[in-house]
Every structure is written in C-alpha cells, then in structure tokens.
Amino acid sequence: MNKQKKLILRIISVLSAGLFLVPFYIMLINSFKTKKQLFLDTLGFPKTFDFNNYIVAWERLEFLKVFFNSLIITVGSLTIVIIFSSMAAWMLQRTKSKLSTFIFFVFVASMLIPFQAVMLPLVRIMGKLNLLNMPGLIFMYLGFQSSLSIFLYHGFVKGIPKALDEAAIIDGCNSFQIFWYIIFPLLKPITITVSVLNAVWIWNDYLLPSLVINKEASHTIPLRIFFFFGEYTKQWHLAMAGLTLAIIPVIIFYFFAQKHIIKGVTDGSVK
Amino acid sequence: MAKVTLNDITKVYHSNEEGDVLAVEDANVDIKDKEFVVLVGPSGCGKSTTLRMIAGLEEITSGELYIGDNLVNDVAPKDRDIAMVFQNYALYPHMNVYDNMAFGLKLRKFDPDIIDERVTEAAKILDIEPLLDRKPKELSGGQRQRVAMGRAIVREPKVFLMDEPLSNLDAKLRVQMRAELSKLHERLQTTTIYVTHDQVEAMTLADRIVVLKDGIVQQIDDPISLYSEPNNMFVGGFIGSPAMNFLKATIKEKGNDLVLVGKGDFEVTIPDDMAKTMKDLQTYIDKEVALGIRPENILDPAVHDDDEYDADNLIDAQVEVVEPMGSEINLYLDVGAEESIVAVVDVNSGAEVGDEMEFAFDMNKMHIFDAETEEAII
C-alpha cells in the first residue's frame, strides 16, 4: 500500500470515528448546560462547567438504586446466559446426531424472529405465570440472548480438539468437570465477546423492561431516564446528565475487556 | 500392572448414510503383564478403534475386554486404571506443565505431597523439570510429547495406551523419542499398548506386534517372527521396508525338483527341505501362486562369493532405477513381470540404470503364498 492510500484511509477512519463520537459530544457538553442554554446553543461549549445537573439527575433518578437494579439484571442475565449457552453449545457440538443438529438450527433460526412479533404474547403468558419484574426479566433475557450466544460458542467449541475432552475423561473427569475444568476456561475469549454483546444490549434495553417491570422499585436506568420526558416538559439537560452517568459503567467495562474483545473477534481467523 | 485380554471384540458403527460399518471384527489378543504390544496397520484398519475400546472411549459392540482379571466392558474409563497418550498430545492449554501432569491425581483427591512427589519424579525421568511452570504453547513438539508421557506416568496406571504418539514429531526427533520410549518401558515395566501405522516403530518398540487389516487381526507375533514368517501376503508386504516383492509364478515338477516358473521366463528351484514342509503340496502343482522375496534376499552375484548363492537360481533382470542409500543401494529391477521388483544390494554392486544383469534369489528365505487366499503356503 502506498503512502497516499494510507493517508486517505487514515483520514476516512478519523472522520468516521468523529462521526460516531458526535452523539457523545452532544450528550456530554449539554449535560453541563442549563435548559435555556441548551436550547439556545446546542452544539456550543457550555459557559461554565456546572455539575448541578448531575446532582439533580442523581437525586431524581435515585441513581444508586436504579443503577443496582440495572446491574443485577445485567449481571444476572449475563451469568445465566453464559452458563446455559456455553454448556448447550458444547454439548450440541460434541453430540453428532440429527437431533442435535436440529436443536442447533432451531436456536439459530430463532435469531430471525423480531422481538416485536413476540413481545405482547410473551408478556401476557409470563404475566399469567407470575413471572414479571426482575426474575421474569432475567429469565426472558436468557431466552432472547441465548440463540446468538449459542451460535457464537458453537463455532468456537469446534476449534477445541475433542481429544481434550477425552484426555479429561481418562484423567477421571465427569461431564461437569470436563466442562468446568477444561472447556470453560478455554472459552474465555468468546465468553468475553458474548458478555460485551449481551451486557451492552441488556444494559441499554428499554422496551422489554418497560413491558415487564411494573414496580417502581425495580426500575432500570433507561426506564428512569424516561422520567425526564414528560407530556409537557422535556428536561434535556437533566436527561443528558443522567445518560452520561448511565454509560460510565459500560465504558469502564468495555475498557477492561477491550483487549479480549478484539481477540475474541479475530480469534479463529488466523491459525 | 496387568494383563489385557480381548475376547472376540467387535465394533460396529451405525451410520444412516452408509449402513453399518464393521470397524473391528472378532479381535482376540492376549497381552501379557509388562508386555509392550504394538497394533499396526494401514489407516482405517481399526487399530485406533481397538485402542479406544480398551480405553473406554468407544463402546464395545460385542466381545469381552479384561484388564487384569476384571471384565471392564461396562467400566467407565476413569475406573479402568489406564492412562493414554494422544496423537496430538491433548495437553490442557490453560494449565502449566505441572498442573497438566497433576490434574488426574488432583481429581482423584491424592494428597498434595504425594502429587508433588510423583510429578517431580516423572519430570526428572523425562528431563522436563525446568519446564514445569510453562504453558503447553511455550513448548516444542518434543517437549509436549514428554509432558503427555509425564501425565500418563504420574498416574502409575496398570496399562499405558498410546495412540500414534510420535507421528507429530519430525523424523529425527521421532527416532530419538522412540529410543526413549523403549528405555522408559524398560524402567517402568508397565503393560503398554501402542498404536502406529509406521512398521519401523512397531518393529523397534514391540515385544509383540498385532497386524490389523480391515478390522481383522492378521497376525500376532514378535517382530522377528513376523518378518521372517508372515502368515499372508498382507503381513509380508506391510512389514519391512522396502516391502517384500511378489511375483506370480506356477509350481511345476522338474525331475525330482519343484520349480517356480514365472512370467519373463524366470525359473527358480524350491529347496528340497522347504518343499517338504509345504502344506498340501500336490494340490498346488501346476497352479499359480505368489512368490514373495524380500529385497535383501535378492543377491547380486558380483558382490557375493560363489557359495553364498545358488547358481541354478539366477534370473535375468534389467536395472530401471538406482537409489543409493549410503550403506546400500536399492535397485528397481524389471524381470519381465507386471511390476518391477526391488533389490537391496551392497554399495559395491556397481549396477547402473539400463544394465542387463543376473541376480540370485536366496531361495531359503523366499515365501510362497496361495494366489487366491493370499495365505502363506511356505
């Protein structure tokens, strides 16, 4: 590749990176403005960096409480999604039968069903089963997220030689021990990828919690942020501060996992 | 330590597309305590399947498998008291060498001091002490192979099972590890069942060799007997490198002698004492048989004294290819038969491509096989 081409590519990358950062910029600078300032000059820098919005948003959101609700739902869902889908993928990959192929395809095919098509019947059925609010939500996330997760794990398990399972059998492992001592540690790169994809999705999800959570005490961050948008007033400045607070944990999580995410995405591409 | 007995062991794979596939048929093998037995055969002959049935990784369709005096058909692999070395070593990538070796003992809840003692001892035997903290990916092929051996040794099992453990190593290392395996067996005296497709490995390591073809045991014997007295054409051709030559010939009576007459007008006399041991001799007269002769039993009269070969059994041949091997020369000879035959002769032979020469068959070391059943007659 010659220098000119490289330069052009670099400019394009910088521009597209900038484009992706614009919403963050708008969110961040407007979180420091008063409501009036925000409407007068949306794109400009704030005159003073006033943390008042954050204090108000923190209190109005009951941030700690909703933060922990979001955290419990995300971590809870993630944990069971990882446990169930990695085990299922391992078994489906290792069992060579028509039934296992069929089950795998059912999982993959369910990725194609739009959420909106099933949400109302789902909520009604789950309501009748008394499975709403946090436990129900976590259970539903297991259902919705496991298809993609199983698909990702399944591809990864293929790359783990079956001889390792057999060596473990001869060393004296039962199925659970093979999985937990040998297979699961080797799934680490893909587990991180699965975690990030699911965590971001669950953390940010608004629609499903809005249908399932009917107790204020169980509200998640996205649900509570919506409180700033009333019928007659839209408190953008507070919403921006609230959103900034809400994404901080996700960004911290991403930074910690970044190295592994990239590894997870590229693993298997180069032998 | 224990003997291993296979009684009529059969393995059938059920497959929807191809119907039932018979992988191993009625295998009967008695492996003595402390014996080193090698299962050898071409790929797909059922040798690995047999080993995996002994390990418990494959179910036995029918027949009985004993380890020691216990029937183990339905015993889980972990309770069979065996250890296995895999072709690709199957080391746990996320554990260091020490943990790889200690894993089986930890699962069996051994005392940590005993685990430490055994791992250190095995590492000393295998010369891998400095590697104990490393992960498998930081090791060379030969080192990984040693760790895989170490993992088997620390368990102190009754039987070692090895599935082509040297086939992933380069040629030089393979020879070196082969010698070390021999030494190790000498030292540990553990019953060992070893699978390979490499007949040189089989010959050099084994106390006894089991030759398999298409799931059927062809012959079980010690290496020298297997080489000098093959049961059939397959064993004759499989063991030995270069392989045994086969020539179609007809047995005829000539005066008091029996001779073999083949294509290209060659005629060799069957020695009297061999003719006497021949089974159902009369039935083969005037019938086609296969003459088997090993390359080193084809002699070049130029480099042998007169009393070392029989001047009556000379055949004409044209040299097609000359392969100098250093200590000897492989000659590919056209004797008028369908395929050329190979002779291994002394480096001083002086044979060159295109030469018309005479060669002598060392008839005391030839074999005769039934052309149809391929069974050995002599």
From TrEMBL, chain A:
<feature type="domain" description="ABC transmembrane type-1">
    <location>
        <begin position="67"/>
        <end position="257"/>
    </location>
</feature>
<feature type="transmembrane region" description="Helical">
    <location>
        <begin position="178"/>
        <end position="203"/>
    </location>
</feature>
<keyword id="KW-0813">Transport</keyword>
<feature type="transmembrane region" description="Helical">
    <location>
        <begin position="236"/>
        <end position="257"/>
    </location>
</feature>
<protein>
    <submittedName>
        <fullName>Raffinose/stachyose/melibiose transport system permease protein</fullName>
    </submittedName>
</protein>
<dbReference type="Pfam" id="PF00528">
    <property type="entry name" value="BPD_transp_1"/>
</dbReference>
<feature type="transmembrane region" description="Helical">
    <location>
        <begin position="66"/>
        <end position="90"/>
    </location>
</feature>
<dbReference type="InterPro" id="IPR000515">
    <property type="entry name" value="MetI-like"/>
</dbReference>
<dbReference type="GO" id="GO:0055085">
    <property type="term" value="P:transmembrane transport"/>
</dbReference>
<dbReference type="InterPro" id="IPR035906">
    <property type="entry name" value="MetI-like_sf"/>
</dbReference>
<dbReference type="GO" id="GO:0005886">
    <property type="term" value="C:plasma membrane"/>
</dbReference>
<comment type="similarity">
    <text>Belongs to the binding-protein-dependent transport system permease family.</text>
</comment>
<keyword id="KW-0472">Membrane</keyword>
<feature type="transmembrane region" description="Helical">
    <location>
        <begin position="102"/>
        <end position="126"/>
    </location>
</feature>
<feature type="transmembrane region" description="Helical">
    <location>
        <begin position="7"/>
        <end position="28"/>
    </location>
</feature>
<keyword id="KW-1133">Transmembrane helix</keyword>
<keyword id="KW-1003">Cell membrane</keyword>
<keyword id="KW-0812">Transmembrane</keyword>
<feature type="transmembrane region" description="Helical">
    <location>
        <begin position="138"/>
        <end position="157"/>
    </location>
</feature>
TrEMBL record, chain B:
<dbReference type="GO" id="GO:0016887">
    <property type="term" value="F:ATP hydrolysis activity"/>
</dbReference>
<dbReference type="InterPro" id="IPR005116">
    <property type="entry name" value="Transp-assoc_OB_typ1"/>
</dbReference>
<dbReference type="GO" id="GO:0005524">
    <property type="term" value="F:ATP binding"/>
</dbReference>
<dbReference type="Pfam" id="PF17912">
    <property type="entry name" value="OB_MalK"/>
</dbReference>
<dbReference type="InterPro" id="IPR003439">
    <property type="entry name" value="ABC_transporter-like_ATP-bd"/>
</dbReference>
<keyword id="KW-0762">Sugar transport</keyword>
<protein>
    <submittedName>
        <fullName>Multiple sugar transport system ATP-binding protein</fullName>
    </submittedName>
</protein>
<feature type="domain" description="ABC transporter">
    <location>
        <begin position="4"/>
        <end position="239"/>
    </location>
</feature>
<dbReference type="Pfam" id="PF00005">
    <property type="entry name" value="ABC_tran"/>
</dbReference>
<dbReference type="InterPro" id="IPR008995">
    <property type="entry name" value="Mo/tungstate-bd_C_term_dom"/>
</dbReference>
<dbReference type="InterPro" id="IPR040582">
    <property type="entry name" value="OB_MalK-like"/>
</dbReference>
<dbReference type="Pfam" id="PF03459">
    <property type="entry name" value="TOBE"/>
</dbReference>
<dbReference type="GO" id="GO:0140359">
    <property type="term" value="F:ABC-type transporter activity"/>
</dbReference>
<keyword id="KW-0813">Transport</keyword>
<dbReference type="GO" id="GO:0008643">
    <property type="term" value="P:carbohydrate transport"/>
</dbReference>
<keyword id="KW-0067">ATP-binding</keyword>
<dbReference type="InterPro" id="IPR047641">
    <property type="entry name" value="ABC_transpr_MalK/UgpC-like"/>
</dbReference>
<dbReference type="InterPro" id="IPR015855">
    <property type="entry name" value="ABC_transpr_MalK-like"/>
</dbReference>
<dbReference type="InterPro" id="IPR003593">
    <property type="entry name" value="AAA+_ATPase"/>
</dbReference>
<dbReference type="InterPro" id="IPR012340">
    <property type="entry name" value="NA-bd_OB-fold"/>
</dbReference>
<dbReference type="InterPro" id="IPR027417">
    <property type="entry name" value="P-loop_NTPase"/>
</dbReference>
<dbReference type="InterPro" id="IPR017871">
    <property type="entry name" value="ABC_transporter-like_CS"/>
</dbReference>
